[in-house]
# Entry
Amino acid sequence: MSLALLFPGQGAQQPLMLRNLPTSAAVIETIDESGWKIDDLDTAAALQSTVSVQVALLVAGVACARALTAEYGLAPRFVAGHSVGAFAAAVAAGVLTLTEALAAVELRGRLMEQACAERDWGMAAVSGLPTRAAAEVARQAGTDSEPLWVANVNSATQTVLSGTASALHAGATAAERAGALNYERLDVAVASHCPLQDETAHSMAAHLATLPRRQPTARYLTNTRGRATTSADTVLDDLAQSVARPVQWYDATRLMGELGVTCAVESAPGHVLSRLLASNTPSIAAIPLEHNGFATTAERARRILRTDQS
# Structure
């Protein structure tokens, strides 16, 4: 029976999310180590920048993981990060240092902004449709000049689309016509996990190729295939390529149950990954750190893991 740590991606950000992290020496040390001022990361103004959002999520994820492991003795056997959250997962698994991850995420955010600089792009979540039907919504609403792509497969009935603002607007009509329960624009100013970011992926691969290869200390769930790996090369390839390919979160969370994960703790901020996990794999107890704090989260996780072992 084993523990997984989950790290949210862009869209989970919220103002003051670093200031509102539970009190912990590890949290303070991680923020200091990052070299960033909090005011440059988690104010409402700062969060208008894709770079600041992604760096803030990385710092929050690493800080939470360090506190849980160093101060509360929770050592994960699995780590999984959604989109940019994968960089925090890679740090938690020892594949990247925080310094390396910060440099990579800053580069990633800058390149993503540049890829979207000439037009208005974004993302939207379609709920209540199977993946194939959501993909058909993207096909119907998108055109060569106003593209719309499947970006995330989050569950059996939730898919995220990336595209131009015009295509996303047309997608709302197509989704309603197809019987979707909800269609919601996300708080994301770029289009990610789609061909628009091919050059970003190429540049990320070149950057990550210069880093040392370190054996992961936990099994890492990939974004691009939803599979588990203990290969540093596979982790780094996933970090590079996932920006231009759909996130297979549904497959990853289903696999966790098959591999024996019984408890998963979601790093702050947010609780969306816990909700998705409860839907995708009900056998896994999902605990969002944001709602529980470190001590309560650790006690709940230990109790679940002890019960599973008895």
Notes: The two ends are 10 Å apart (CA to CA).
